Description:
alpha+beta; two-stranded antiparallel ribbon
Amino acid sequence: MSRSIFQISIAATVGVAIVSAGIFATISSHAQGGTGTTTSPGTTTTPSPAPTPGGSMGTPGTTTTPGDSMGTPGTTTTPGGSMGNPGTMTTPGGMSTPRTMTPAGKTIVSIAAGNKNFSTLVTALKAADLVPTLSAQGPFTVFAPTNAAFTKLPKATLANLLKPQNKAQLTRILTYHVVPGAVTSNMLKSGSVATVQGGNVNVKISGKKVMVNNANVIMADVKGSNGVIHAIDTVLMPPN
Length: 240
């Protein structure tokens, strides 16, 4: 009887050892395969997700477009006012020019003022208050009469035109010499060309000879920062 009890006790001890070994193996297996997880009683264990290549939020890497903070490509601001257009002023004869914008470099007026052959023209421009207009942004093309061209006029006629009371008539004549835009000699074509004054001049090209109405172009393409001068040998008179 004592021997039987002893055998049963031994068997029970061996069984407990086997069960303990199985539990230990299970625990070891979970410890090796559950990297990055913590097992808490009563909770479900979710494996840690593998990092996704890209940003910090696990989204695929993106390329940032140069520009502002919203990723919009940078833009170029066009010089000008809020609407992109400088203010304008209207001068007698219908010539509209920018009010405040002054071109860099020598303007048409400064070129004429620096050439003694245009001294009479500059005097006339001052008398007509056209210096600010032709010093503005433009661009303009001026068929500029030389001093010799003005001498073809009767002395009394020129003297009268320079009087303050005849300013409107002088302005009408001078603006008849001005064409909008910078028109160089290679752009000129035979035909009628509108002037700032409102009338048209007739351009005639024959070989290398260029005429504007009855005036010859004796020096072409004197370029300024706000346009072009073509010197002529006769003062142009607008039609009545």
